[in-house]
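We modelled the chain as a single entity of 341 amino acids. Its sequence is:
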Amino acid sequence: MAAWAETNDASKLVPYISGRGINGNYPEEINASHGELYFHLEILPENKSVWVDLLGAPEGRKKPVGFSVGPEAPGSPFDSVYDKSNPVTLTIISPTYGVTAFVVVLLTFILLIWLARKTNLIRDGSECPVKGKLRPYNLGRTQMAFWFFLIYASYMTIWLITSALDTITSSLLALMGISAGTALSEAMIDSGKLSANAEQLQSLSAEKQSLEQTIPELQTQIDALNAKINLSPQDTSNRDSLNKQVQDRRARLAQINPQLEQLAASADAAVSKGFLRDILRDASGYSFHRFQIFAWTIVLGIIFISSVYNNLTMPEFSATLLGLMGLSSGTYIGFKFPEKQ
């Protein structure tokens, strides 16, 4: 290196880590008398791919690496004592920031799971009709919570390793928009159905109560007329009229009771049966349109995690893949309209 420095500019040297030149990362200080160079390692546009190769797929907070300096690539590093047999330690994640971020993400995850299990955070939004029970899990809200936490945890991870802040891509905004739109549309449809069911239940219950009160009253009047020894033509006409009213009311009561039983059964069914059963089933059983959106969400989630772990970047989903996700969501919402509540 000393011979090289006699005829070349040492300020243009760059560090080499495990044989990879960190282009653009020039010395911050040069001590020519002692032959020392001081570098502040940083991720720049011209060396980002090298850093991703070095820091991607981390197996811990630190990594042993060889270290040297040399001319910018495609040059080659000078000989160094820091090689595979005598490596230096590269800190990937700061212990202080790493522990703090891990605690924050873990507490967020625990709080999310607790709220999901104990409250209506990702369940159907109305109060459960069965006291002491919770409503079923909601597929749209579950998908929205899934993407929220995945992006949240990934953003923290990328920031810890690369210090990058602007990592949210336009395709992620589109993906979050699709999941939010799915949840919102589903909530509007379910809210309309629940309101209609509640109004029908209230109306039928009030009508049943009125019929159950008036039938005995009419029967009392009929019994009073039957108790008379001699009935006038007017009494006979009144008795016949009262008998017809009783028959009509009993017939109507016979129609109302099955409807109320059906509504009561729907209310009992609106209780959580378990996470997977709730999000994959409707009143008719397991549904393919629900399974489709669930399966694609899992697949894209795996691709997402792989991209963050290996490349330290948020994935950029293609328009075709986003269109496929939007089509799945649209199909699901379309089937929600005739779906029984």
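As a brief sanity check on the tokenised model: The first strand starts at residue 14 and ends at 17. The chain is about 60% helix and 10% strand.
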